[in-house]
Design goal:
29% helix, 347 residues, 13 strands, six-stranded parallel sheet, globular, homotetramer, alpha/beta
Chain lengths: 347, 347, 347, 347
């Protein structure tokens, strides 16, 4: 089986990471790489690491660009740009996985409060939130996937299995996240300038990050009640990796082992979620370059709170790896196809 | 005025940082640098950065080593080693500032639960906890200072001014701290090996770090009731810097501006605490190499919680700078003497 | 075809990197992982990144350990330890790829001058220097491979194609190399302590590094005359990657294009050497995690010297990837089997 | 004595580093900070690290801006911008230290070949090259200083003392330099984007960097003959620091000790040059934040070449610290005034 895949927005970090994964995928042929900035230029001139591997010339997408024969289109564009182009792709009968925020929300009001007026509201109902550990059945049948944000992925994977447990106080959840800098994308800015990031550590958008309503909506729909997480993102002086520390109030006593067992059952057949044994907490280094989410758990000594720590590679499970996982499900492939990169001992 | 100062344990990171600060202090003369590992070797051979600045030979402290004429002794030793040597120094009439954990606790039971049997319990009552913004009056009269831990410093400075405010829910405090690697000291180990730290991020000692009872005891004594903070330390891939994100439950509504004003009044005449204006959160880079603690504040939109972010340089305000500040107070000098290093624009 | 492979010294960085590559190799089954330090412990407890991927328990190798059925043994041990164990393995009929320096030299005197008395001199004549781009024919027939050092690999690949060209002044070659810290291995020491490496840059073992005689011997044998390279290694604050800048005297004028063409012909069918077009110089980031060696070239404006810049991942092409490439050749597999990891856009 | 100082271009990295040093200088009062980008904004809003230290509002320099009463003007502008403004400042009778390349060349042809048409050629003859260890006498009398580039500083300080020694082959000098990223300035660009620098290492502008003719001219004038250095700059994944490895051909045998002694005599009374004892090579970390240049020396075993390694902080001795040192000399202060920052043990 060969899936013909196009990547629109191929030269940003999420797009280029898609190209990395798709070019090594045993069932994928890349047919088109679109880039507004690098139209006409070989992909390997933009990313010399890819010399001899992906020398395909990027194209500047226009109305005349034919996507005929393409089985799936990945849109790795800034939000707003995505909703401008996706409806046309869907009309042409393409399957689409969108890595922007444009199709992650079911309720357009949530989107519009944090982003802007939505231009393709009618697609929101049919779009599926692409968190495969939870929504695989819907993903399999979907034409349009709203690929989750990196922060929501790192928050939801540890939380969702517990969202219906009576011991959890859903009104008392805090997520303290730390992200590598690649999450900010490839456009140069002072905030991502080497000397401004290196050897520094900071919080940003405290209680006002746009991934907050995304995680709130998914969690609320899942638990069937309104939930709001207190969320603080931080920027860490490293390229890849995201670690989220969750503080969850407890309504009744529970042990670390209980929670591990609960998570273990929930993710029993999910190849990309690894639950740490009691006493071990994960490190972003353990998942770098891979599609894994590792989760560690500790109930506090006073049984007051449950602390969970999750790690992902923000560009893989937090973006492009998850998109490939979604594609695999949509095309009936094993979930792990093209995603079996072995992690580094050190990186 | 010239203060004659000795540093015992001069070649660890806290000791060497003391040497940096004392060698540039206008009122200090370093009379003795003791090091078990480097006895007989010039300090500048251990730290070539100091060539021509501190070429004094380290000494291997023995019972015969005379400290006569020394005005103050800094002990920058591992815990247990400190309590073995400090009583003798006090007996000889020296003022002592101890950077270990051995003299930070008032209640020996707290110490013994987390460390080991205390060998100098009688000194605990007279020892003063060296957080100068709070205890300057006691420090001035003290002979023995238990210099605070880095994590407690970064947690207590934002919290203490609010500890008696009615809007604060003292039963609902979480501290999520991120530390540079220098806090782990200079002894090589796998956990501080370059390749194991670089490009990684991890939590450690979740809900079981020994600085947790230290911050609990100080806060409880100050608020005059039992308080327990949920505390998670993390290791960040950088050398210096500590950022703590505090989540404090609110009993009644309060605005960001209220809290800023409250902190601003409390620290009005304290040269080393800087409160950020609303909308700004601090970065560890802003305090690197300095004795500052910068604090930013944000009340969540639902007035559910207060989020505070503090940053310090773990080796300066979190250790050696604070020790020098304590010394200044003990000797009647301006608090800032020798601590006026101007921060770097980038570092 | 399934090759049964054992790794002795599996928990050092080179060993663990071998495990990474072998566990993803389509024709390899790992049958034994030996570790003196972690005998009895699952490999994935030593490297949690490998949980669920390589959970095989490490073994403490003893005289009774049977290697029956093993097709190839990789020895990733410190020098001296290797020459103690390799002769026995060869006697038992195993193919061996040794990653230490013990079997890299043809002339035992060269080895003994820089290392120590050689205990298996008779094997040196049959051992083949495992630089596959040059010695593939010999490697194919060999039982014992001395896998090259990382610095020699980065120096020899750009130099050897030119060693017989008349325009090159073989008496006037300088190699200035910069290495990531993983080359120093996994044993903690002050020199590889995070805070001693991070944000620092230094030269070390100037004109006295043990890889210097190795590159000299190979180059001299190849060019059939005595050659000595002036060599300075440096330590860079990063985990992986090695960049070597070569300064080669010119006896007669030559253009950048001439040299590129010369290298291009030489490596025409070599999948792991990529020659940069004129005007581009390589970056270690482009080869991270891969077995590539990228080479860039510039003849100085006065035609005085040729400058060449090569980059490798010191743990892959500089160690374990090259070992797997050698194995592939020894077993008649495509050179690239198990080595087709796609490089990261950023890492 | 109080020197009233203005900094034009105060918010770039060199300018901000000047502000750091001048604000801590015991004999300086900063009277004006000019910034095109941040006119009207307090300096400490641009650099929050400086809150409470330098809160002076930046000004957008215009023709009406009065510099009356200013004793010295530092221009930290891009080249070309400097030569547009400096003649007017000189006309108004100000002393000027220019940190751009505009006044570093004696021969306008050299400048114009690598930069552009020079608009203030008549000032080149009176401008003094601000390398105080060599030109202090001229600096003392000068009105206009062309402050040296960072690379030339790191190359010239080890080389100049030997330039008239008969054992040195002046036709055979190579400088291989490695720089931290702050040298590229504060303007965001892809090449200085965090993820493009971190964990990478590259050469750039091989044999075509504009600092090459600068070092050539100074060395040629000093030795009174034409000299051309082969020069390759590299970018290292760190913020501050520059290490240059020099390879100097030898015409006659010389020992490491001879060279050390030669350098030691030359710099006997120069407080900022430290010569390492035989067997030690410097590390950029040893000079971070300081105005030191440390130099290590090794003659190769075959007495074929002399290898010298120098380190500086590119923003201090390579830019702003050197500028302050020049100011001190111009005003008859001790060279070290305001430059006595004690280096960090680790940073």
């Amino acid at each position: 089986m060969v899936i013909k895949a196009a990547v629109i927005g191929a030269t940003g970090y999420a797009g280029a990471e898609l190209v990395r994964l798709l070019s090594g995928h045993p069932h994928v042929e890349i047919t088109l790489l679109a880039s507004r900035q690098y139209g006409g230029i070989p992909f390997s001139d933009v990313y010399p690491a890819m010399s001899g591997i992906v020398d395909l010339r990027c194209r500047n997408l226009s109305n005349e660009t034919s996507l005929e024969g393409t089985d799936i289109v990945f849109t790795a564009l800034p939000h707003k740009a995505s909703m401008g182009i996706v409806p046309g792709l869907i009309d042409q009968g393409h399957k689409v996985i969108d890595l922007s925020a444009d199709f992650r929300f079911q309720d357009p009001a949530n989107y519009e409060k944090w982003y802007e007026v939505h231009q393709a509201k009618d697609l929101l109902q049919s779009a599926v939130y692409g968190l495969p550990e939870i929504y695989a059945a819907d993903i399999q049948k979907a034409s349009l996937i709203g690929n989750p944000g990196c922060y929501p992925t790192s928050v939801l994977l540890p939380l969702l299995p517990l969202a219906k447990e009576s011991f959890v106080d859903l009104d008392n959840i805090i997520a303290d996240s730390k992200s590598g800098t690649s999450g900010a994308g490839r456009s140069p800015s002072l905030v991502t300038h080497f000397c401004e990031v290196n050897e520094g550590f900071m919080a940003y958008k405290v209680d006002e990050h746009r991934h907050n309503p995304e995680m709130d909506e998914v969690l609320s729909l899942f638990a069937n009640r309104d939930i709001h997480i207190t969320f603080t993102p931080h920027l860490a002086p490293m390229t890849r990796g995201m670690l989220t520390t969750l503080y969850v109030g407890l309504k009744s006593p529970v042990t670390t082992e209980n929670v591990i067992s609960c998570l273990g059952s929930f993710y029993a057949n999910k190849p990309f979620v690894r639950i740490c044994p009691a006493g071990r907490v994960p490190n972003t280094m353990h998942v770098k370059g891979t599609n894994y989410c590792d989760i560690g758990v500790k109930v506090t000594q006073q049984s007051q709170r449950l602390i969970m720590v999750s790690v992902i590679d923000n560009l893989v499970k937090g973006a492009s790896g998850q998109a490939v996982q979604n594609m695999n499900i949509m095309f009936g492939l094993p979930e792990t196809a093209g995603l079996t990169q072995v992690p580094f001992p050190v990186c």
